[in-house]
Amino acid sequence: MERILVVGGLSGIGKAATQNLKQSFLVETLSRTEYADPQIKHHSLDATDSNKLKEYFKNYPSYDHIVVTAAETPIGSLESLKDEDIIKAINQKLLLSYYVARDIPWEKSIILISGFLSARPGPASALQSAINAGIEGLTRAIAVEKAPKRANCISPGTIDAGLWDKINPNIRATIMEKAKSRTLINKVGNPLQIAQAIRFAIECEFLTGETIYVDGGARFGC
Ligand SMILES: NC(=O)c1ccc[n+]([C@@H]2O[C@H](COP(=O)([O-])OP(=O)(O)OC[C@H]3O[C@@H](n4cnc5c(N)ncnc54)[C@H](OP(=O)(O)O)[C@@H]3O)[C@@H](O)[C@H]2O)c1
């Protein structure tokens, strides 16, 4: 059975990917949380600490595939975010993805997660748009540099789970209503829909260097 590591696999999109993939793969998870589920091997590590990652995985057998859903990025307008928050966000998503791709051994494919704001900026999305575009560029570069190993990126639209679980329910409901109205199908997404795209990217051996937008057409909505 092929082995997959889901970095960020305990919540939101990563959790849905873990649940979906464990039906056909041997799945392990990695995040900062200490976690003991006898069914799934979990590595408690901060993936922004590249020295620890290297040391920890030095003698570890390579994974067949790695999925990176881990991130922690503040949302705010160009002027509102402080320098330290901007640097932290780049570290917590773009550099984290870079470190994982470089420091955890993998043999067949890696799946990174960006977000549709790379292609459809909003009124307060400069940081997210830049980081997500960076992730998409990183994916293409890894695909070229590591060929014939494959690298692909899934770019979700607004998914009503995961990072939104930390937001006040009333504010979250307003954001979801607005996000719905910006799609072509008047819906926000759920984590399983992104997990299905992740599975496709893992299983389709002719796919590499690609970004798949799973956003309900939010790039084209009004
Ligand atoms: N939800 C959406 O609407 C949406 C839309 C577009 C794009 N995305 C992107 O999709 C991805 C997943 O989002 P989500 O909503 O599922 O978020 P989430 O529920 O907040 O999950 C992020 C996961 O990353 C882990 N993590 C954060 N920093 C880490 C670190 N330094 N080392 C290891 N693990 C770390 C967290 O676990 P620990 O706290 O245990 O470390 C958490 O499980 C993110 O890249 C997000 O930007 C989400």
Automatic annotation (TrEMBL):
Q: Name one GO molecular function term.
A: oxidoreductase activity
Against InterPro entries, the record matches this protein to:
NAD(P)-bd_dom_sf (IPR036291), SDR_DHRS6-like (IPR051122), SDR_fam (IPR002347)
Q: Which UniProt keywords apply?
A: Oxidoreductase
Query: In this entry, which stretches build a coiled coil?
Result: none
- Bilayer-crossing residues are none
Query: Any keyword Oxidoreductase?
Result: yes
Q: Which family does it belong to?
A: Belongs to the short-chain dehydrogenases/reductases (SDR) family.
The molecule here is called Short chain dehydrogenase
Q: Which species is this UniProt entry from? A: Snodgrassella alvi
